[in-house]
Records
---
Amino acid sequence: MITSISWKNVWRNKSRSLIVIIAVTLGTIAGVFVAGLMNGWVNQRIKAAIYTEVGHIKVQNPDFLVNEEAAYSISNFLEVTKYLDNSTHVKAWSARSKIMGMASTARGNAGLTLKGIHPEKDKLVSDIYANLLPNTGSYFESKSKQPPVFISHKTAEQLKIKNFRIRDVTVDSLKTLDVPENVILKLDTLINTRFITQKKFEVAIKEVWNSTEIKSYGPALLSTAAYFHPRAKITFSFTKINGELGYQTYQVCGVYKTSNTMFDQNSAFVKHSDLAPAAMLADNQIHEISILLNSEENIAGFKTTLQTKFPEASVMDWKELAPDAGMMADFMTMYYYIIMGIIFFALAFGIINTMLMAILERIKEIGMLMAIGMNRIKVFIMIMLETVFLTLTGSLIGMILGGLLIKITGETGLNFSSVAEGFEAFGWSSVVYPTIETSFFLGVILMVIVIAILSSIVPARKALKMKPIDALKME
Amino acid sequence: MKVIEIHNVNKIYNESEVKVHAVNGVTLDFEEGEFAAIVGPSGSGKTTLLNLIGGLDNPTSGDVMIGGSLMSSLKGSDLTDFRMHNIGFVFQAYNLIPVLTARENTEFVMRLQGKTAKECSNRVEELLKAVGLEERMEARPSKLSGGQQQRVAVARALASKPKFVLADEPTANLDSKSTETLLDIMEKLNKEENITFIFSTHDARVVKKARRVITIEDGKVISDEYKNIED
Ligand SMILES: Nc1ncnc2c1ncn2[C@@H]1O[C@H](COP(=O)(O)OP(=O)(O)O)[C@@H](O)[C@H]1O
Ligand SMILES: [Mg+2]
């Protein structure tokens, strides 16, 4: 019965309660959505860390961690792979040789690590092949005169392999993208000129287009004018296993881009069978084995098993290999609750204030209730429930709407490149797909209840401090 | 059987410069089934005396015993619970919870005692019928007249079958017709249920209905008369 009185009391002053409910609703929507956004972003990062970059578990020679020299290969590679082949926990593994070196073209240099892989096996562990940029080649499929290399967009820029040129096809595609005729005409003087960096191209565009035109049509122009110098040759210099300097020329067979610039900058993929002879590595001289397990739950257990089995090897899981993602995985949930906590802390002042008004304006009635036999505990429960209902109504609506917003944007994705201005934004879109677990909502409900109970203490004390006869006194 | 025993009770207000001796050496007993009026001019100490009997206030000295329990030995929630179980209250105003219907207001104390709505329903309907509100059971107080609201308050005070009902100027805000109706209802219920009624008033028409009239002035009982009512 107290419950029903409390619920009815919420609606005594409809407009005042609605204001609080709307504020709580909006605050909850904002908090839930920001949490969903962060969560989506973190999940994408974790997914990339595991499925593109490092795998669940990696086996290496511990000396290689300290000093990435070609000589520090995994000592009992064959035994390890045999064990992995026979384990039911392992979904796939990929062995990679790693040689640090310098990549050069006629126009640029870049320091990076060549990763010698077996493409078909590596595909099962890393989805790097799925990050191939359109029209830049294929993943180790086409034939080439020189051994193929799969480089990142970033490396391509550093080596000045990414060029810009306005061609007839560029003009045609701009027309199909609804760029006005007169705007396209302004580009006439630039047609067929090659720009070897984006910066130089941007400078030239700024001469002919004004800033609003750049803002509206710049991204389309950049993406249609950009092209990768096809089959560009890259020479790598590196130290062979015997300490001598080695050179090897590769041909770009594909350009990829992941969400991790650091990884991109550092990684170029070649076939182990091409790299090994050039670096004087034996077929079995491997620097890392990247492993994907069937279930993430087995990571800790399998890591321990593997480490016990091969004590001379270094066995690390993805949290150690990608500490940024690992940290976020461990703490992110706490951050979401901190965000919600801050929002509700701010809302609590409004809730306390509203409840104080609600209690003070019916202090006589509460005095009467205490006189006829409603004890302090029941009065407190009545006020507390009223606060909980007031707060929970808004937060439930907010959670439903915020959840819907996450569901919708989680399917379409949110493109944050459009938020930034000017040419700086002309990079590649960073699309986030918000997502949130159901358990988060349960946590928020619990949190709302706790905050509502705490908020009810001030108004309840006000009510309980007074004596029934004082409240009942007729003026 | 004595329901209430008041022995040499004093209430002195010290809060301001002037001491107010609101209740001055009152000794009174009430038997089961009485229908008693406390009469006196405004400021004579009626409310103070009723508050002392009802356990809403503590006497400066003297004892108030209800059903053999000394009121001053009860504190806090124990005292509140004692009121809930033993005393029915009717105030001059603010008697009802605006968000509840007449039925829900009537069953309120019973529900506080832990009874379910179902367990209350017979008693509540019987009482609301007795106070002439069987048609308005689902109405909220704002849809009832002042007299009807006071009748709901009387029904609520009686619902849990308390030892006695205290009513401090229950008719002060009512017109004469409503006053008469309310008094008739109180009298009827007093007879039917044999529940002691103690009410204060300064209205002569109300005094007429009482079977015992206790007159106080300046906090002292100056007369205590039983009327012989032969029907
Ligand atoms: N809380 C109080 N503090 C000081 N004086 C009070 C207080 N309550 C009542 N009084 C005084 O006590 C006397 C009796 O008051 P009250 O019991 O309300 O009389 P009645 O109900 O007969 O009008 C009055 O003189 C009144 O001013
Ligand atoms: Mg009075």
---
Amino acid sequence: MVDVHLKGIVKRFGKTIAVNGIDLDIRDGEFIVLLGPSGCGKTTTLRIIAGLEKPDEGRVLFGDRDVTYLPPRERNVSMVFQSYAIWPHMKVYDNIAFPLKIKKFPKEEIDKRVKWAAELLQISELLDRYPHQLSGGQRQRVAVARAIVVEPDVLLMDEPLSNLDALLRVKMRSELKKLQRRIKVTTIYVTHDQVEAMTMGDRIAVMNKGKIQQVGRPDEIYLKPANVFVAGFVGTPQMNFFDATVEVKDDEIILDASDFKVRLPKDYLPVLQEYNGKTVIVGIRPEHIYPEGHAPTTAKKLSWIEGTVDFVEALGSDTILHLNTGSMILVVKISGSHHYEIGSKVKVALDLSNIHVFDKESQVSLLYKKQREVQSS
Amino acid sequence: MEESSIVKYYLRKIIIAGLVILAVLWVITPFVISILYAFASKTDYYSPNILIPLHYTLEHIQKLLDLGATRAIINSVIVAVITIIISFALGLPAGYAFAKFVFRGKDTLKLLIIGLRMFPILVIAVPLVTLYIKLGLNDSLLGVALAHTAMALPFVIIISSSIFAGVPKELEEAAMIFGLDRKGAFFRITMPLALPGLTAAAIFTFIMSWNEVFIASVLTLTNRTLPAFILTSAMAAPDFIKFAAGFIMIFPAMVFVFIARKYLITMWGITLK
Ligand SMILES: Nc1ncnc2c1ncn2[C@@H]1O[C@H](COP(=O)(O)OP(=O)(O)OP(=O)(O)O)[C@@H](O)[C@H]1O
Ligand SMILES: [Mg+2]
């Protein structure tokens, strides 16, 4: 139980910069998720926290203890490796018991804990097997069991559920989350599965190219993405993006996309005033575009446009429309199952209170920039 | 269509089996011949009508042992064991370093080590004898073992480095996370996993030392190892004594390989290269 602080962490491997200046404060007992695409430096960050890798720059603090140069065993961390790293010459039981044996737990206590962890991860009947007799998903669960039998200060998990089937994964997610709540261990959880990140994390740190793009609660990440990357990476189907020119009028702002114009209310004036005449990137999520008859009654500020149905994905629970508005495709998500004729014309409304505007150059959100400046000061 | 593919399948199997039998015969015939003749009675051996001897005797072996082969076998085992101990004590840490660490000059060093193998032993024999006389190592088993170590060391380093490289580094790292230091992780994780491969390397080293005749003959006079002993004493004797000598040469090596063999194939069901 400890708070973890990363201060200006940089890690290079030859010419590649795996981690490029990460600052992150993780609270005591928090469940934080590192989310990002493949190769963005998640594993490297985790390995630096574990002590398996020394950063080229920056410090790692556990509480106010500087652990940057301490070997792993002096940090009291526990880890699930992306490659599982369970020992092939030990039976499953001994793999799970190993950390306890090293820490000289009494025999009965070891037995009790191993059985408990095996039960939790549904591998009780595998305890007597060698790892090569297990499937990938079973090995992964052994790795998780081994990591949770000890009571570490910090629990590090590198995509611990990536190899499980969908059903088991959902179950394990909630089991792990419940366990973490109960033992209140500070947990750093790496994944590139956004659903996993949204459902498990107290907070999510979205990473790209060795940098943290945004840190926040799942709803903040989803509703107030700080830049184009976060907005595009989180949410399926992906957010719609299009370029538009800003025209500031007396009592309204017009976003002029080539196919249509969007009239924004005056509320946006403070952020968009200085962009008069310039091009910005506009983003709107598929579920914030409503076809006629599907607009929620709570949605007040709507802007109607028209398009032709290009393609329909009927998912059962949702219907995804691909609308051609002339020179671009807008993706629209409607909950429930609905029928649309391909080639037919459909009127849709953009929900203006859920619209995102980004700077064309820096790709930073204009709406949530101010807010973040307040937060970080 | 169906049928012809079945015929092809079996034809292929038969051809492969034939080739395997041929290869096995190729290897095994000299063994069988020397073993048969090592025990053949004198009369059977010289009888022109008998190809496979009918009467067997331990006489030849006994004669050789009486002549000093017993002592030579013991010497050979001692030399081989010392060679394994020293070459592993020096070679394993080097192999580990090559496998797990990145450092400057690594490739050059590796090349140099392999380069050592290119030195014909003939070239260094005379300087070695002079050096040994100065050091008081001439005609000693330790001296022979040191020379054999020099021959085996490059092999041990290169092989053990590839064995250690075959053990994923995460396995050791996991042990370090869960409370061991690097040394503990090595002995409890990497070492057991590398054991089958290292056993193979030990067998190879043993056989190399056991078979080595030139250096052993040059460096020793009274403390002969087995090959040196056979070269100097048995080669002047009748043929069946030579076969008996051949058998004595092969036999302990075969026993050693059989004992160690099971470690070679699989251990815990995994095979590490
Ligand atoms: N030991 C290493 N040597 C050289 N480059 C490395 C090493 N480890 C990582 N990298 C590089 O650093 C970058 C970050 O790697 P990292 O493993 O942290 O990514 P990741 O976010 O965990 O990706 P994934 O989701 O695929 O596991 C990658 O470009 C990778 O190629
Ligand atoms: Mg990774």
---
Amino acid sequence: MDCHGVEEEKIEVGRDELKILLMGNPNVGKSVFFSKLTGREVMSSNYSGTTVSYTHGKMQYSDKQATLIDVPGTYSLKATSPAEEVAVDFLQDGEVDVVVCVLDATNLERNLNFALQVKEFGLPVVFALNLIDVAQNQGVSIDVDRLEEELERPVIPTVAIRNVGMKELLEEVWKASADQTQFNEQVSVTEDERWQAVGRIVEEVQEVEHRHPTFLEKLGDLAVKPVTGIPIACLVLLIALVIVVGGGKGLRAVFFLPFVDNIVVPFFRSIVSIFITEGLLFNVLVGEYGALVKGIEWPFALVLPYVFLFYIVLSFLEDSGYLPRVAVLLDSTLRKLGIQGGNIVPLIMGYGCAIPAILGTRANTSPKERLVTSSLVVLAVPCSAQAGAFVALLGDHSILALVLVYLISLAGLLLAGVILNKVIPGKSDPMLLEIPHLLLPDREALFKKIWLRTKSFMIEAEMPILLGVGFAALLVEAGLLESINSYLAPLTTGWLGLPTEATMGLMLGIIRRELAVLPLLELDLSTLQIVVGSVVALFYIPCISALGVLIKEFGVKIAITIGFVTTFIAIFAGGLINQVVSFIGILL
Amino acid sequence: MFLYDLKKEQACRIEQLPTIPLLNSLGLREGMNVSIKSHQPLGGPIVIQIGRRSVAVAKDIAEEISVEKIEKNIS
Ligand SMILES: Nc1nc2c(ncn2[C@@H]2O[C@H](COP(=O)(O)OP(=O)(O)OP(=O)(O)O)[C@@H](O)[C@H]2O)c(=O)[nH]1
Ligand SMILES: [Mg+2]
């Protein structure tokens, strides 16, 4: 698994195993079912397009085994995006034993239309009527027995996040798989006929009691009106910054830094000292810049607090259903960059990690938007690990410099977007986006998600950082760094105005984005040098894993182009700042 | 009269709409009643309420959906 991406693996189904497919409209809770039933955690968020490729997992009920498949949500069985295609293909390849079709009880009409389409396929289907809790809060009640009669298939009311109805659902799935009744339904119904049938069923089974809008409903509406929505968005951003930057500084000073520096690193040093006491290997491992010193202090003491806090904020925002509202507010701005408002979701995810952000663009229908959004993420959006490094470098020096670097990143994003919009052929789709209900995130689901992401950061960041730092220490010890430094001096010293030792960041930055920043911590730099170094790191080549994903999604040619262009922009922008400021300095 | 021209809080019935499959799937069909929740400035989208759902619709699309004004609260 790359960062937090979902890898497509070949599905192997044992001979007596059932193959069960989860289907439904977007954002109805399919992935929650998958996680609960298989024990394999997958991402779920309160907006459509969370799942962009398929995942499968084993599940068991009494003594029988089955493979469960989670796919992206689809509004109809006519796929319109690469993500939707994945789902429809599964239904059509015909090897599925039972379809579990998840329905949203708060939006019966549209979901029933989908239910009828799935039923027409003639496969055994079990319906899960999910989000019953939300429906109840809204005063919607549904007569499940009547609905079952109408659909002629089992219907189980469920609250997936609280495990309500799961057992009954499994029972029905097994019954349906054993039932040999042939459903030769394949009748073709026109669209109009289907909607008429839906209207009739809804009339019969659903009762809506008029209620006053709840606080969350009112807040949800205020968030999409420009007059109130923009102040709300600014407030949310401010709170997020206080939590991540302020909280991160606090956490780092109070806990992470002392813990790592006083306990973890001395621990490793004493272990290593048992075997070796001095020499090259000792220095590479536990010398001042050794792999087990900086390779642990950097990711765990400096970066982890920010990554952790960022994921708390991001996960909360995702599960609340707030993000699509930001998409509405920003649509007209983003369209100047050739992308519609919905792309704000992958852009924001990019502030966590570029990889899920690039994969997330699969929910887009237009290839142009996928490419523009992905390029912007890898060019100008600092990931949370890099943000942690920036705060460590800039925050302690001058908060203003930190703000400046983020303003430069924003300006770079806008400028690059406007240019990409002109350069990349194709069209962007006009916005047509469902706004989910604003919900209070489920605590358990939230904790799991934060833990999942933090854990994957620790696992995926640690190895490359250890190796990178170890490699760097080896270069220093072997005396090779000197010659590399002097070789690159025209660039580092001449153009960028940095000390020759800054080559370290340029080399390590290829591995991970925060490694382009962290080595600067060890140098004694002026404010200008810090800003220049940060700007170079910001726009610099995407990390190795992100490049890998770019290759997979867009091909080698595009990925390499992105790698070269970003590196060029980084060096150019950094040098420009240095030259201009120095020039002004001379004039003054 | 087109959907995009309606004022905030105004309710209407959809008369005709362009053939975009996603529109249908999102529940926008001829004869449906919808109301306007918000208008974004600078050519941004509008947010409409349909049933208990909100959907954001781009200006380009909303300008092609012809509607007839109705009194509020007839659903
Ligand atoms: N209150 C409540 N929330 C639920 C329930 N089931 C799911 N959710 C929430 O609904 C949101 C959507 O869930 P997902 O599992 O991501 O939906 P999905 O169908 O996989 O969505 P896509 O992958 O985008 O098609 C998440 O925020 C869940 O926590 C439920 O029964 N009650
Ligand atoms: Mg999903």
---
Amino acid sequence: MFKLKAFSFLFFFVFHIALGHSFTFNNNAAAAFDKDEITVNVNDTDCAGADSGDSNYACNSDFITPQKLLDLTERAINRFWNRIPTTRLNLVRGSLVSKGNTFRRGQLCNESYASGTCTPNTALKVSSDILISCNCHKNNFGDSNVGILGVTIPNNYDGVAIKGSLILINGRHDGFHNLTDNEKINVIGHEIGHALGLGHSPVEDSLMYYSNIGKRDHLGWDDLDGISYLYPSSQPLNLNCGTVSLKSPNDSDSSESNSGPNNTSFFLLSFFSIVFLGFILRYGRRRFF
Amino acid sequence: MKYITPSKKTHLILLVFLFEFFLIFPLSYGSTEENGAKKPSKAFWSVGNTTMFPGKVQIDKEGTTETFNFNPTFSFGLEYPFRETLLIIPELGLNFSGNGRHAAVSRSTFFISTDPGKRFKYFLLHTGIGLHWTFIDGPGGTETLNNGNSSTAFYLPEFTSISSNLTWTHGIGFPLDFMFDQKNAVLKLDSALYNPFDSLKRAVTYRIALQFSFSVEGLPTFFNGD
Ligand SMILES: [Zn+2]
């Protein structure tokens, strides 16, 4: 099975080893975006067959279109990160943005993927929010296929606040392209987790586990805890007013809405409450009104 | 997929309305001077288990989601009668998620609510607004984990993070007169709905608990009107 890979933002820091089983961060300050609503944009560059003559950044002949990448990204944010009850975080589908070929050809870090350290390449600094681009550079994914599907770093910081994160999806090899849509969504979801500041989880059922697992429809507890830790909700001061889904019956994406309490139970609860309040009003009206 | 994003103002108005309804409304009862209920106020404590977010979280490689999880829950509360069968029930409690999957991270939830309730012949219903605070903290330091083809030291959480959530609470209580020597044991089934207006973040917790009530001498009886 292919392994997911993301570089963490590790330079400058000295490590000491401790044991634990929990979510982790990719930086030592628990850095996170300093806003609640984060847009995820996709570079409009097309990777399929691009630069095929160049040994450094030749792309595979097959890769999904930027539009398809954007659609899968939206499904990833709504399947995973927008479903956490105890966070204020709200990810928003962005748009295709014209970043030229820089993000398709560039290196994520000044070092190669194999070096184990990462000094972010300033030429690929993301000015704000999250940018996803396909990319074919051999130093990001290996000259031949070593199974890396995507690499991510927050590469724009202001103190401990993340301002911008970059996700590069492997267009050099056919590994990502050959995944099913569901698996692609999981890979994108995992990389977005890194973009938000999470490191890996030692727990197999977490999306932030380092490796792709068999069946993935939901986040694991570790993912929930990690995002809740970095982006705690602060209701009632800051209500999660995010997404109220208005689905039409023929919505092709309806498989995304099957977790958590469904609408039927929600409306039953509402009905129960309204009937009950009716009781109170009825019994109380002589005194109250 | 289409989304609308209601404005924060809309939610604030709704919130103020609900708080008025659930809190101010029963309080204003007590300020009138007509015949109030003569039942004494009671205090109670409860012990039970809360299942957090059933159906929301994957717990194995096969994609199984939970319908039950173990979070011991303790609470303390009061029952103020303000009409023959109507009550206001302030309650505060704590549930401990313990370790298990989160060996290094601890997670617990503190909650308060002030539900109006109504007593029927065999059960008591209540609904209202609650506030849930989720505490997550960790040991700090780093953990070395696989990262692609090598391994990397990742950072563990070091401080305590607190999420606060407004919840819509519901509950039903069945007095267990037949089981215990006293008449004051109640089987409680409660649920709290997180983010009722957000179809993605919406989630429930449910609690099954045993509650034991006792009368409190001199407890203020705001709603008796005398
Ligand atoms: Zn990763």
